[in-house]
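Hey,

The postdoc asked me to send both predictions to you directly instead of through the lab channel. I've kept everything plain text so nothing gets mangled by the mail client. Protein one:
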Amino acid sequence: GKICNTCKDGYYKDSESHCIICPPDKFCNTCILSNGEVYCTDCIENAFISSVSENGLECSECSEKCATCQFNKDSCITCQDGYFGPNCDECGNECKTCEEVNSDQGDEKKKLCMSCFDGMYLDKDNNCKKCPEGYYKCKLEGKDIVREGDCEDGYHPQGKSCIKCDAACSKCDDNTNHCIVCSERYYFDSLNNCLH
């Protein structure tokens, strides 16, 4: 191996001046070798400093609800998708972003979904519903569910919809039986048709 003067972020220099990747279970953004042990000099984004010594830092992972945290795993600074509010409460029901609003029942609060995870769309009642088969992303436009972006393999975009390709194709262009990639157990003939 090559002898390095310095290593890039995410690596540390071992006793023979080789760059070794920081151990993933230590949650280091940057790390060093100190007294035969690997210590962090900085934590990755979704981790916090759990202890400090003269050798360096030890990092621990934030809880699943926190995108970033400090002091402890549940002390969130920012929430992961699907969580909201100062305590990063769960949105639930496939909801990616939500907010708390006043409900019709006096002082009670309710969660209002603002956006959904991919493959889901927000209906008129602010609930996340599954996109039709073949759609990566979709949205409600008036009464119609329309695609946003590409279609899944086995489907091709047509207008605002995703149309299923012929069974012989795992990918097709704007014509359902004009294959770009053949399905399993099919092959291209000399005319670029997928045959069994």
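Protein two:
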Amino acid sequence: CRSDSFRYGHLSSIDLVHWRSHPDALMPDDLDGGIFSGGASVDDDGTCYYIGTRPNPEGVGHNGDWYIYIQEVDLENWCLKGDYKLVWNGAMRKAEWPEGPHLYKKDGWYYILHAEGGTGPAHAVCVARSKEIYGPYEGNLMNPIITHRHLGKDYPIRYVGHADLIEDTEGNWYAVMLASRPCEWHTNLGRETFLA
């Protein structure tokens, strides 16, 4: 990804040692914000979808007033295909920065797992689900499902967000996420990776 214009490139490898770089895979469209903070998911029928975030198309009403959207990916031409669909704008009322979404399908449900609250004391992980890929999505009543925002400024791990789910070969599920460990009010190591 090139940060100057939020273009997504891609690499491929057959052995995870030797990598081949390919041209930019996804390009910004004519909407402000272009392509930002997303990922891809392949459905049961082989259709690939991009899930990302963009500014509220009706106008940004507050800091971080963004939407999560889903759009089909043309795998032959490596570009977005058709119209995007706005599917979610965060679990909390007037959520700030719903971002970094991941799309999963499990037992007939589509799940969006995403960060919200910005990278700071309000950072959290939230989830929504739907029977249809384009929604409507319903938030989990217990959102946020992972956060440290309520533990206070003296808790050793803070700013938890940006989780991804992993299932091991035994059927156990884990979340890998970002968080910080401040030392004397500074996060010298920045955001670190945590496993729960």
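Summary for protein two, as requested: The first strand starts at residue 8 and ends at 12.

Thanks,
C.
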